[in-house]
Specification:
This protein is rod-shaped. It has 1 helix and no strands. It has about 90 residues and is mostly helical.
């Protein structure tokens, strides 16, 4: 079976159209990929910032807890001294 010139031309035109479609699809996917990479980078930056904030908060919380413990120790020490003083009277 021989193909005529018109049939061969139509096949090439069909292939050309499909190639154009694939190129356009690849370009679209490439742009979407770039957008997603930028979005991922932004989200990673947000996570890093939140982690730093959380770390600072934890450090502050530990400092506050340490100061509270120190004050409670002083109070306990004072009340122990106070009890000894009043029982010696």
């Amino acid at each position: 079976m021989k193909l005529g010139n018109d049939e061969i031309k139509n096949k090439f035109d069909d292939i050309d159209g499909k190639i154009d479609f694939l190129i356009e699809l690849c370009n679209t996917l490439h742009l979407k990929n770039k957008e997603l990479i930028i979005k991922i980078k932004g989200l990673e930056d947000e996570i890093a910032e939140k982690n730093q904030t959380e770390e600072k908060f934890s450090e502050q919380e530990a400092l506050i807890q340490s100061k509270i413990d120190g004050l409670l120790t002083k109070l306990n020490s004072f009340s122990g001294t106070s009890d000894e003083y009043s029982s010696n009277r």
